Amino acid sequence: MKLQLLILTMGASLVAITSGCHKKVAAAPPPPPPPVVASNPPAPAPAPRERTARVTEAPQSAPVARVEQRTSKVLADYLNKLLDAYFDYDKADLRTDARTALNNNSSELRSLLKEFPNTKFVIEGNCDERGSPEYNLALGDRRAKAAEEFLVQIGVPASRLAIISYGQERPVCTDHDENCWQKNRRAHLSASN
């Protein structure tokens, strides 16, 4: 019994030692806090090639636009000086006054050809409102061809001329009398790129 008492005492002592004398293991320190980041981080700088492209694009587009506007205005001013060739009712033959007008246009047209070497000039054939749209388109085409043939004969290169017929679709006057109809029966010069 003594032995049992001794074992019991030793067991109790052992329990007391292990539970009461239990050495606490120090807890690992918490990890350091993450570094403070600004709420709006700076944007990464664009690649040098992108910067160069932006810098060179803006200055090039502005002067080109101004040159094109100036060129268009000069061309329009020249074209406004040109006279139309007028035709008799239902005719595509050049009258004397139409030949004179086209002949007077030849010096202006030569200047235009030199100053605008990439521009093609269009002879527009027009009619008054009388007649069917189909008939007037064909008549306008014959009028434009007659004016083109005359201009080629006086030295305008055929390669720089084109023709188109508008028939009765582009009147310059909308009254319904002979004076107005005469203004609409014409060959008119314009430019095309």
Overall description:
- By secondary structure, the protein is an alpha+beta fold.
- The protein has a domain at about 85-190: OmpA-like domain (60s Ribosomal Protein L30, Chain: A, 2-Layer Sandwich), CATH 3.30.1330.
- Helices cover about 50% and strands about 10% of the residues.
- Strands 1-4-2-3 form a 4-stranded mixed sheet.
- α2 packs antiparallel against α3 (about 95-115).
- The longest helix is centred in the middle third of the chain and has 34 residues, at about 50-80.
- It is elongated.
- It starts with a helix and ends with a strand.
- Residues about 50-60 have low confidence and may be disordered.
Furnish the topology, listing elements before pairings.
Elements: H1 2-20, H2 48-81, E1 85-86, H3 96-115, E2 120-126, H4 133-153, E3 161-167, H5 178-184, E4 186-192
Parallel strand pairs: 2-3
Antiparallel strand pairs: 1-4, 2-4
Helix pairs in contact: 2-3
Broad structural category: alpha+beta
The largest sheet, given as strand count, sense and whether it forms a barrel, is: 4 strands, mixed
What is the straight-line distance between the termini? 126 Å
How much beta, percentage-wise? 5-15%
Tell me the quaternary state: single chain
Total number of beta strands: 4
In which range does the helix fraction lie? 40-55%
Question: How much is the average pLDDT?
Answer: 79
> In sequence order, what are the helices and strands, one letter per element?
HHEHEHEHE
Strand line-up of the largest beta sheet: 1-4-2-3
- CATH H-level name of one domain... which superfamily? OmpA-like domain
- The CATH C-level class name of one domain: Alpha Beta
- What best-fitting shape do the alpha-carbon axes yield? elongated
Number of helices: 5
Catalogue the unreliable spans. Answer: 50-59
